[in-house]
Amino acid sequence: MFGSKDSSSGGSSKDVPATRDAELSGIVFQPFQEVQAQLSVLDDILDNSSVPGPTTMAAASLARMDYEGGLEAAINEQINVEYTMSYIYHSLAAFMDRDNVGLPGFAAYFKASSDEERHHANLLMAQQTRRGGGVKLKGGGGGMLG
Questions:
Q1: Quick check: 56 pLDDT over 90?
Q2: 23 is in an annotated binding site
Q3: Is 34 a known ligand-binding residue?
Q4: Domain 69-131, architecture per CATH
Q5: Is 82 annotated as a binding residue?
Q6: What are the DSSP calls for 13-74, one per residue?
Q7: Single pTM value for the model
Q8: What angle do CA 34, 38, 43 make, to 5 degrees?
Q9: How many CA atoms does the CB half-sphere of 84 hold within 13 Å?
Q10: 19: Cβ contacts below 8 Å, ≥ 6 apart
Q11: Can you tell me the distance from the alpha carbon of 45 to that of 61, in angstroms, rounded to the nearest whole number?
Q12: Taking 90 as the threshold, does the pLDDT of residue 89 lie above it?
């Protein structure tokens, strides 16, 4: 534990920074005093991201000029459609490849289709980030077969 004397090692409490006599349970981030002002500005920007104007994250990227929020949302929706289709095709490939189904040609076709849909999603994500937009992926996927 930080900040406690360890009699077995002969160390003192000055050797290790004190943490208010509390056990650490993971990583603790305590930034330097020098960056506190910059972090508060960033927090303000993130908190005001729904308010249009010069303090939003959209204004932080020059690539985002003339990039409407509706277009960004539509591209995010299409990215999620592509991933959902990839997931469904991948499920079909796994189903066709089962030992009691045994259709390796269909399995290969659906596997290739899954890879193609994932490739489409990757292209759209690259375009989205190139234009200064953010990628928002939804959890889950298509239905399970089997």
A1: no
A2: no
A3: no
A4: Up-down Bundle (1.20)
A5: yes
A6: TTSS---TT----S------GGGHHHHHHHHHHHHTTTS-STTSHHHH-GGGTT--HHHHHH
A7: 0.55
A8: 135
A9: 13
A10: 2, 3, 28
A11: 13
A12: yes
